[in-house]
Design a protein that fits this description.
This protein is mostly helical and about 55 residues long. It is built from two helices and no strands.
Length: about 55
């Protein structure tokens, strides 16, 4: 999921440089959502992973 977040971030940067503002905005929004979902899942896996030990 972090990989897809980075891919959308790079797409947003390239689209922004080429002048495609709408595509850049959409790609950056998707990248932000994926990154926050990754963070939540990562923290949950750390919390629940320690309980099993």
């Amino acid at each position: 999921m972090l990989y897809y977040s980075l891919v959308f971030f790079i797409v947003a940067i390239i689209a922004g440089l080429l002048g495609f503002g709408g595509i850049a905005g959409a790609a950056s929004g998707i990248a932000q959502i994926l990154f926050f979902v990754f963070l939540v899942l990562f923290v949950l896996s750390l919390i629940f992973g320690r309980r099993r030990l």
